[in-house]
Amino acid sequence: xxxxxxxxxxxxxxxxxxxxxxxxxxxxxxxxxxxGVDIEPNWYVIFRLLKREGEMSVTEISERIxxxxxxxxxxxxxxxxxxxxxxxxxTDDSRxxxxxxxxxxxxxxxxxxxxxxxxxxxxxxxxxxxxxxxILSLIEQRFSEKGFRERTIEELNKNx
Length: 160
Hints:
Elements: H1 4-7, H2 13-35, H3 44-53, E1 56-57, H4 58-65, H5 69-81, E2 85-89, E3 97-101, H6 103-127, H7 132-145, H8 148-158
Antiparallel strand pairs: 1-3, 2-3
Keywords: DNA-binding
GO molecular function: DNA binding; DNA-binding transcription factor activity
Domain HTH marR-type: 33-135
């Protein structure tokens, strides 16, 4: 059967990125379950950021990883429920909560980092001989300079 997303060419671009991301996340979930690790695949970025930077607010995390604030709240709430994050009220602003890795997270980090390092090597192996990461950076840069909406409207105006 033909892959319609491939047939769409550039119009299938976002669908193919989403499909790839979904496949990697689902495979990651199966891997963690198989390894007996009770985390979700997209938590690693929060673990790594908080390990490196220490206590941070949700807004700071959101800005550093380039994810929408509500998405970061959803991730961190799940991590807190699983016991991997602790939360403290900011002394300067009681509306802000500051997140830290919990003792459970710190205890789990050596095993998690071993898994993540192996995953990184696996991705490097899969991408060997390509310049995928450079191309991805270029795509991100170009769409941050001028987004899809602006580019599409520009093209529509060319034909007017």
